[in-house]
Write a structure and sequence with these properties.
Two copies of one chain form a homodimer.
Chain A (H helix, E strand, L loop, with lengths): L8 E4 L8 H15 L6 H21 L7 H15 L7 H8 L11 H11 L1 E6 L3 H11 L7 E2 H4 L6 H10 L7 E5 L2 H9 L3 E5 L21 E3 L2 H7 L3
Parallel strand pairs in A: 1-2, 1-4, 2-3, 4-5, 5-6
Helix pairs in contact in A: 1-2, 2-3, 5-10
Chain lengths: 238, 238
């Protein structure tokens, strides 16, 4: 087993790693649809919405779109999906409220407990592509005990662009090798590695539902590999 | 009495408003000097160091100096003060440690209790010229229960430049009039007003010591005027 890396801060991917975006979004969309007496496959809706998020960030990083934060990327995709699913009757305040479901995502069962343990020894922060307000509101509603909020919105580039990781370490006043990036996604951790950060892979087998095919193997080059945040805390000595 | 403004977030000046910078810095410098068997007026040292901070930010905002964060501004002034006070024997790690006294400032007795109450209803954040790492480390050492960390370092301009306030409200995803700036300093609140934020004045009669002459009168144009953070919480309905 590898020695645990000597770090001062742990920064976390959020969507999928800390919170269960798919179940939370599916439930909120289903609630809205029920109120409108519209039936549909709301898991598919959630998955399509999520695809729009990835696509939007890719376009921003590629320079095809100007900088826009994730609330805006989500909203563009939402306005595209609503007519497709028979929900075009939603008015502006209802669309705004639904778009903010991403501010109210629910944590995985071990997230708050694991983070609270890690916080005793380390600075803990999200390092998410989600915008600053989204992450701040989510922390408040979900009780995530972050020491600060780091977002790609502060760095002007979305992960896995190296600047997103490097500027975050700079803001923490830490050398890159003293920051451990935690994620359930191999691509995010490869980006963090390339930027000089240490890496911890955590499995989230249900991120894409029971039929999903999440990353669960990780990569032997990562510094830590953990089953969940309790296991991560244990391995990090807290 | 004015009606309490309807706001979603309270953002706080930190040095002097949340923490007692003068007593904290004086004590740490005195401890270092005692270890070196050097005598001096360490309150005066703290006051001079503080003057260097104001002067450095003014030069950055005026374009005389390139952007530099407060850790760097503090360090430049520290290196200037040490020989003057017979402390030039401090080596690099000792200077770095002393410079970080600003990361370890102690809160006023009512700060944590008042913030904890306010946090129940509002998003609470520092909005300080102190750099992001400084504010994050201070929150951890002093137990300040912030929801996020906002710093002039994220906005590229120091208060009272309007951008420092406006970009902070933007990051919170809030209209400027839904954000209340809390400070013990009239100049800071005038800057916040000019940028469209609401304002709360809190008196900190001992910021400059027993012989000091702090702002205590406030200004009738401020939305709220409070004796301390407990009084502020009460007035804000929590």
């Amino acid at each position: 087993m590898k020695p645990v890396p000597h770090v001062d801060a742990l920064v976390f991917d959020v969507f999928g790693t800390v919170v269960d975006w798919r179940a939370s979004v599916t439930k909120d969309v289903a609630d809205v649809a029920r109120g409108m007496k519209v039936q549909g496959d709301w898991q598919k809706f959630a998955d399509e919405w999520r695809t729009g998020y990835h696509d939007g960030m890719r376009r921003v990083n590629a320079g095809e779109w100007p900088w826009m934060n994730v609330d805006l990327i989500h909203r563009r995709k939402l306005d595209e999906l609503l007519p497709k699913y028979g929900l075009s009757g939603l008015d502006e305040p209802e669309r705004d409220r639904l778009n903010r479901v991403w501010h109210r995502l629910k944590p995985w069962p071990d997230s708050v407990k694991g983070l609270s343990r890690l916080k005793k020894r380390y600075v803990i922060s999200p390092l998410s592509n989600g915008n600053f307000a989204l992450l701040t509101n989510m922390a408040k509603s979900a009780g995530l005990p972050w020491d600060c909020i780091l977002s790609a919105e502060l760095t002007g580039r979305y992960k896995p662009d190296p600047q997103a990781y490097q500027k975050s370490a700079d803001l923490l006043g830490l050398a890159r090798g003293r920051v451990l990036m935690v994620a359930a996604h191999v691509g995010d951790l490869r980006g963090a590695q390339a930027a000089g950060l240490r890496t911890a892979f955590v499995t989230r087998p249900l991120e894409y539902g029971h039929q999903g095919t999440p990353d669960t193997a990780g990569d032997p080059s990562f510094d830590v590999s953990a089953e969940d945040f309790i296991d991560l805390a244990k391995q990090m000595g807290v």
